[in-house]
Structure formats: structure tokens, C-alpha cells
Amino acid sequence: MDHFDQVPRRKAEFIKPPNTLKQKVGEGGLSEEILNKAQKLLEENTIDFEPLADMYLDALTKGIERAKDFTPSSDVEYVIAQLLYPAMQLKANGGMFHYQLVTQVADKLIQFLEVIEVPDLSAIEIVLAYHTTIKAIVHGKIKGSGGEHGQALLKALEDACMRYFSKIPE
Amino acid sequence: MAYQFDRISVLIVEDNQAMLELLKSLLEAYGVGTVITAENGEDGFRLFCSRNPDLVIADWMMRPVDGISLTRRIRNDGKSPNQFVPIVLMTGFSEKRRVFQARDAGITEFLVKPFSARDLYRRLVQIIESPRKFVRSEDFFGPDRRRKRNVGYDGPHRREDDQKKLASGSIDPDDIILGSR
Fold first, then answer.
1. A15 and B CB contact within 8 Å
2. Which of A13, A25, A30, B118 matches a 20 to 30 Å C-alpha distance to B128?
3. Domain extent listing, chain B
4. In a domain, A35, yes or no
5. pTM for the predicted model, two decimal places
6. Distance CA B57, CA B11 (A)
7. Which of B14, B98, B116, B139 best probes binding to A when mutated, by most A CB atoms within 10 angstroms?
């Protein structure tokens, strides 16, 4: 008999499907040589990130414009999602195409967007600063982590976020 | 001996052409025999039904059908030729709630972009060597979502009973912490 205080357990069926992948590929894994070759292929890809980045930056600009029209009756989740999705794409793709600093900056932007409650004017200013920074990195062709200058940029953006949150009463 | 990836087919569903090409060449470098590609979840599902690949790698954000919806269709649609197919979902999101959202749709593995050749390989090894059981309940069908063992208690197991279970093999030795912490 269930305890009076306990949530009834749901009925669940467990199924063990055949491991067809294992049956096909067999044993042994891949050699270091193959993995190194695959990694080299990733690192040496010559795909131009700029057109892709511009597309996502444009989407972010549109998101910022929508956020500027935000009213208390707006769908806050939708408005933030219009900023979040292009930021996520910039984070995801930057590092795949040699722009690790774009990934780092966009990651900070995502962290900021994931926690703000409303896209108020101060928040939009911060998103704009991120947008400007990412655009400058891409158009300045600052590949890799951007060295000391890149990390200083990242720190400045992070500090701006901290200042934003310090102004919000708990 | 090495994995004979030439015997398998992989479906990549990704709307970013550059990313799709990169991933395709990565799989070919691993030696994958057949790589099928689609640019959104709608085409992806159609190709999945007609080609029945051994593995699906899908991006999350796509239009008109995203990777989450594609996963749900593969797992639950009557037309799906293999509801158990391993699905790797790729995304730039790494926040816990996003991972949970993807897990609850029935994905097998989550791959955060940007990733390295080894990151993808590790997901494939996990799928091949440690496949999870599937769960069918009232509101979920997909790989068992519980990954952590010994969730309720992570302290030492000093009871006589634990030692008996360990000796009989009914407790994984990794779950047993002997002595004080």
C-alpha cells in the first residue's frame, strides 16, 4: 500500500533495444591517427564565417528593435527568444569557424539573456554593446581568443552585466 | 581491430550549410560509409523514413521543423521505421534547463557547439558501448533519462548488507564508497 503522503508512481515499461550499431561497427574504437586527422580537418577548414555571422547579427539587430518596443503586455519569453537564438547561433558557430572569441562573447550574452526578467532599456544597451563587440571582432577578422585585448573586451562586457544586476533591487 | 564505420549510415539534419559540410567531412574522416543530409526537420524525417539510417545527428534550431520536433516524430510517429535510433542533438545552448528540455524530447546524446573531433567521437562511443534502455510511460518514450547512479545517497556504504550485494555483483563497485568521508 502506498504511503498516504507519497506521489503514486507512474507505470513505465523498460525496453532494451538491440544494439545494432555495435553489431555493425564491432570493437576497437578509432585510432589516434584518425582522430587527429579529423581534428586537423576541423581546424583547417577555410569556410568564411563573416556572411554567416552577419546573418545572425542582423537577426540580433531585429531582436533588439523588437525589444525596444517592449511593453508590459508584450510576450516577454518571445521578445527575449528573438535575442537569445541569434546569440546562440553566434556562440555555436564562431568557434567552429576559427572565431573562438565570438563564441566566448556570445556565451556571456546568452548567460545574461537567460537571467534577465524584462528587456528594459538598460538591458537593451548591454545587448547592443555585445552586438557591437561581436561585429567588430568579425569585421576586424580577430580570429582565435583575441589575446589579451580579447580577454579585456570580455571582462569589460562582463562588468557591464554585473553593474546592471547590481542596480536591480532583490 | 578498429570500428568499422564504413558499415553504417548517418543522417545529418542541419540548416547551416557550412556546418553541414563540415560535419559531413568529419564523419567521412571517421570512415562512415554513408552520410545522408537534410536541411530541416521536415526533410530529415522524410529521409529518415526512406533511408532508415543507423544514427541521426540533428541541429536544434531549424525551420520549419526543429531538432526537438524531429526527435519527437522519430520516437512517436507511426511512420518511423526505427523508434530506437540513436539521436545526437547539436546546439549552442549548454544551460541545464535546455539540456533537460532536449532530454525530455527523447534525444540520446547532447553535443554542445562548438565541438572538437574528439567531442563528437566520445558521443558515438557512448552510444555504441553504453546504450541506454528505453522507457515507455504515459507521457514519455525515449532513452532512460536517469544518468546518475546512486541518486538518493552518495555517502559511504558500510552496512553488512552492502558488502553482500557488492560480493554478489548486484551493486556496481563504482557506487560503493567504503570508509568515512
1. yes
2. A13
3. 5-143, 149-181
4. no
5. 0.84
6. 6
7. B116
**DSSP conformation class of B78:** T
Q: Where are the beta strands (DSSP E) in chain B?
A: 9-13, 34-38, 55-59, 87-91, 109-112, 134-137, 141-143
Amino acid (one-letter) located at B86 = P
A10·B125 Cβ contact <8 A: no
pLDDT along chain A (170 residues), means of 10: 63 91 95 96 94 97 94 90 95 96 95 90 92 93 87 86 76
Detail the DSSP E strand segments found in chain A: 12-15
Tell me if A79 is assigned to some domain. Answer: yes
- DSSP state, A89? H
Domain count, chain A: 1
Chain centroid to CA A15: 35
Contacts of residue A15 in chain B, CB cutoff 8 Å? 84, 133-136
Domain span at residue A91? Answer: 48-167
Considering the segment(s) B5-143 as one domain, its CATH architecture is 3-Layer(aba) Sandwich (3.40)
Which residue do the cell numbers 545587448 mark?
A: A127
| Other Cβ atoms within 10 Å of A106 Cβ, number | 29
Q: What is the DSSP letter of B174?
A: G
CATH code of the domain in which A123 resides: 1.20.120.160
A19 within domain boundaries: no
How many angstroms separate the CA atoms of B101 and B150, rounded?
23
Report helix, strand or coil for B24: helix
Count CB pairs under 8 A between chains A and B. Answer: 133
- Per-residue confidence (pLDDT) for residue B174, from 0 to 100: 40
Residues 6+ apart with CB under 8 A from A33: none
